[in-house]
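Support reply, case 0932

Customer input (verbatim):
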Amino acid sequence: MKPINIGIVGLGTVGCGVVNVLHRNREEISRRAGRDICVTHAVVRDLEKKRPPLEANFALTSNSIDVTDNPNIDIVVELIGGVREASQLVERALEKNKHVVTANKALIAQRGNELFELASSKGLTIAFEAAVGGGISIIKVLREGLAGNRIYRISGIINGTSNYILTEMFNSKLDFESALNNATNLGYAEHDPSTDISGTDAAHKLTILASIAYGIPLKFSDVYVEGIAHITLEDMLYADELNYRIKHLGLAIRTPDGIELRTHPCLIRKDELLSNINGVMNAIQIDGDAVGPTLHYGAGAGAEPTASAIVADLVDVVRTLTTDPNNRVPHLAFQPRLMVDVPILDMKLTTTPYYLRLNVIDKPGVLADITEILGRYDISIEVISQKETNTQGRSVPIIIITHDAVEKSIMDAISEIEQLAAINGLVQRIRLERLSVVNKSVVQQVG
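Our regenerated output:
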């Protein structure tokens, strides 16, 4: 049978990984796909740049039209990143009747609705397994492996850079900036790490996972996004004393009123599975009504883990080339006409327990003032701890763990507490997630 020809746009670390995996495992891949898959062209910005040795021969070009408009190329692999240029490239490839494989989570999260509509109208496929979780294959798990489940929660460590920084802070007793510098020196953080440490990268990935899990349009602009730059070693050590770890999570939770979409640091108990995911690794816990909790763990980035997901997509696309376009697995798991526009809950309405750290002048009546304010906002206290003793008249840290509280109430209460004369600086607030506790009645209420 005629080989399938591939054009790769972007021959960086991941692009080279794709070429090498396709070449090295050519026989095995061909057996799985039913045809040979051959890279014939690659688009690069600089034709003179020195590159690592590659295990296959193909034509290099600096013009993407040599790939998108080439009648002999069947599938375009987009690896340039970003949104604007990548979107233009993918649109042109689709207009020229090329299937597309991409690892670009920002592109899918922000432009996926339009691109999937265009692809479907032309009977084409956009495959994007590598956009979330590197080599974990979490998209296939959600879209196919758990297709018989109603998903009621996704909880994930989905940004390896942030996870490495938080791990390094705790294990090596470093402040945030020092841990970030280590991540940069080791190549785990980009020269500009803002997308990772701000939570934006995790939000892109969560947008995709939630759409596939719940059959909703991609809603990146509705995700609550919070990063890790405000987390201190002090907080990590206090959390440890209380039997918690601090992790940056992406959370998509089904509720009777809509879906929560949020990415932010969380305290999670040490006996939770995700609390033990360290370094640059990713892990995603999916809770379904039939399967219960499942954990999916692996490398979230890197040349060959990402290449593994891209090659798996190529195999899937090759398999579909002889399939009726109307009977292929839909891009976002649900048939396009059956997608539902479920509301995304306003973050102010979210309910979780909270960790609060306050620097307080140790004098009579201060704790009473704090608890009175919390009580007025219907916020009850589970744990309260003063970290130092014999400190009359000095500023000391007070740690509070609340019971479930509404986000708006917490924020309003904090604003009042910060106005007290005995409070030094701002109140640190970190949400707490109990991942092993799930209200399964939610599934019935929203079903």
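We compared this against your earlier run and they match. Two observations from our side: The longest helix spans residues 303-320. The CA atoms of residues 216 and 340 lie 5 Å apart. Please reopen the case if you see a mismatch on your end.
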